[in-house]
Amino acid sequence: MINLLLYSIIFLYGIIIGSFLNVCILRIPAGESIVSERSHCTRCGHQLHWYDLFPLFSYLFLRGKCRYCGAKISAQYPMIEAANGVLWVATFVFGGFTLQSVLACFVISALLALSVVDFRTYEIPFGFNVFIFVVGVIRLVTDLAHWQSYLIGFACVSGFLLLLFWLTKGRGIGGGDIKLMAAAGLFLGWKLCLLAFLFGCLYGSVIHIARMKLAGEGRVLAMGPYLSAGIVTAVWFGEDILNAYLSLFV
Q1: 103 and 62, same structural domain?
Q2: What span, in angstroms and rounded, lies between the C-alpha atoms of 110 and 113?
Q3: How far is CA 182 from CA 100, 187, 218, in A?
Q4: Would you say the pTM of this structure is higher than 0.85?
Q5: Do 240 and 147 share a structural domain?
Q6: Of 34, 39, 225, 246, which has the maximum CB count within 10 A?
């Protein structure tokens, strides 16, 4: 019962942060402020009151329509809020109630937002990578005994991607992806960073090929969502995967 209560609280905090992620997803690509501008209906422009902004619950109560003009509210809002809440709960389920799980939740929220933005615009806003980098620095400081692993993680995948960027003159990989793997490597350490990159490439290959066949997508893909999925996989299951792999040689 105590764990159920804690998970419920974590979910509530997750959907609150998810509501802020929606603001970031909509405003950052448009160059708008995420702090100074009041929330408003995108159709009629009416400023929303506090009782219109309860994450997830306001959407359900209003039946997906603006209180003031009746326009349909994008399903993105409750989907991102609910997804972030579920991701936060899953992070604590897999990682336990630790500081690392708290930091991982913030990283995963940033990954969720940047994935949506990258999927739509083929660009990863620099601010998301800076945020993940800062969380990575906190992770390093709180685990100084393994500082070498985090610094190597910062460079091992991003260095390879930077070389690929130079060799292909920017056609093989995007600059945002390089920065993402550098920041993620600082948070994960080099072993989990390599694993995250491996899974990210695997997800990108399988899913995008399927989208090309089924939905007629072009060859150009946004790698951010797939790399993010690989990073989440490493956060949740990375240690277990590595231990299972190494046990094959014992």
Answers
A1: no
A2: 5
A3: 18, 9, 27
A4: yes
A5: yes
A6: 225
